[in-house]
Amino acid sequence: MTAPRSDTGARLLSTDAWHRYLRRQGTGHQPEGARFAGLFGTGEAEGSVRLLAVLFPRADAEPLVVETILPPGRLSYPSLSPELPAAFWYERVLHDLFGVVPEGHPRLDPLMLPLQEPDRTPLPGTTRRPGPLVPDESAIPRSVTGPGVFTIPHGPVRSGVVESVEYLVETPGEDIPRVQIRVFHKHRGVSKRFEHLTPADAVLAAERVEGIASVAHALALSHAVEECADLTVPWAACLVRVLHAELERIANHLDVMVKLTDAAGLAVATARFALHKERVLRLTGRLCGSRFGRGVVVPGGVSGLPRLAPAVLDGELAALRAAVVSDWRAAMRTPSFLDRLRGTGPLDPAVARAHGALGPLGRASGSGADVRYERPYDAYSSLGLGAPPEYGEGDVMARTLVRQAEVARSFDLLHQTGAELRALGGDPAWRVPVPDGLSGHGVGRAEAPQGETLYLLRLEKGRVSRCVPRSASFHNLVLFHEVFAGDVLTDFPFIEASFGLSIAGVAL
């Protein structure tokens, strides 16, 4: 299908043609088998709304952005969700933030911004600055009814240091036939916050979109800026980026093990994995000054080289690896722990494939793009990454095994990166300047610990006019509804922990 290009360089279609095209792609009628990666909106000054769908025709292909424009007074279109289930939450967000109505949507409940005054939508991409918005916290209607059925509101405030989210568990007592999710307690208006920032300041905001994946978000945004400017990042910077991205990955996967072992009541294992995670964070802080790797990745490269000599870094990583591998192996040989993982929270491979599940969640169900492997960026193309691990069972056990394999691979990558840094010698360049007054558009990607992180960026005269971050946490959390067949209330913490997601990355 050919179509004119919009001012963003995307394929611009009429609304009917846009809808037909996405339905064919999503239902597998196209020979290239495009993967649906997201549906987003941009407010226009005259009151219209531009809809942008992002597709990946092949694993190693450039993203395909397909647009349509809804005119003022006609902010509606036929819903994609009945035939393209992955669009389900994206369409709800469009309704919350732009007032767009996907006609025929299965359940258009508020997700991101449940307002008592629906006409006061924020309209990201415009100069609109709405005043304080009052959320409507009324209960969501129940769907499971019958004798003895009741709803358990789990959250938004829970014990321990956990993010605000409300799970509404509908149950007759132990079995969980249905879970609803309310994430608006974490909504921060991130899309509006990016507007009018310079690329340098936008990276600072990106690092705070999803704190546990600060490096991945900074990478995705920087990749988008570098695409706009057609920049080539110095090799030293590519290595430093991989170094911090893999340390972030290890820390996240260790955090999942902390939560899983804690749910199983394994106090010693919980303490050990928490210790290893803390060691990773402290090592990251010694390398750059931030435990979360913030301030390292900048458009055009990195802010500087590691503060530790490569030989010192190698020694610390070797000791850390030995301890992590030993304790992980011990946990996976503990019968009482394995009994809680096997068969718990299975995600059907067909559902994962149809939805395009990302990261460890998708790979545990036999599918899941890994951007580092499919379309390598920075130094990954020259390192021995290899194909990502995949399992077919889709349960908590499979998701844990995927993370175990990824941690081992991350340590391998860190060893290779250290060797490359030692070979550089001298004082290598680590950054190229971004042109002043830059205008353009770009799509940036990076593989976060949770999966593919995506940024759509538009710059005008050196300032951000629209930035749309999409984390794997948002794309994957909707699948939480799908994994409770046969599970009971005591399985809940294992399933939640095994997803390894961040609510901050969902409620942008």
User: With helices defined by DSSP (H or I, 4 residues minimum), what is the helix count?
Assistant: 15
Number of strands: 14
Across the major sheet, the strand order is: 1-4-3-2
Provide the low-confidence segments as ranges: none
Rounded mean pLDDT score: 90
Radius of gyration based on Cα positions: 22 Å
Structural class: alpha+beta
Q: What characteristic shape results from the CA principal axes? A: globular
How large is the share of residues in beta strands?
A: 15-25%
Distance from first to last alpha carbon = 33 Å
Give the biggest beta sheet: 4 strands, mixed
Helices and strands, in N-to-C order? EHEEEEHEEEEHHHHHEEHHHHHHEEEHH
Task: Report on this structure.
- The protein is of the alpha+beta class and 508 residues long.
- It is 38% helix and 16% strand.
- It is built from 15 helices and 14 strands.
- It has helices at residues 15-26, 88-98, 190-194, 199-206, 214-229, 235-263, 267-288, 310-331, 335-341, 349-355, 359-363, 371-374, 396-424, 472-477, 492-499; strands at residues 11-12, 35-43, 49-56, 64-70, 76-78, 101-103, 150-154, 166-171, 178-182, 297-298, 301-302, 440-448, 451-460, 463-470.
- The strands form five sheets. Strands 1-4-3-2 form a four-stranded mixed beta sheet, with helices on one face.
- A hairpin with a 7-residue loop joins strand 3 (49-56) and strand 4 (64-70).
- Helix 5 runs antiparallel to helix 6, helix 6 (235-263) packs antiparallel against helix 7 and helix 7 runs antiparallel to helix 8 (310-331).
- The longest helix has 29 residues, at 235-263.
- The chain is globular.
- The model has no long low-confidence stretch (mean pLDDT 90).
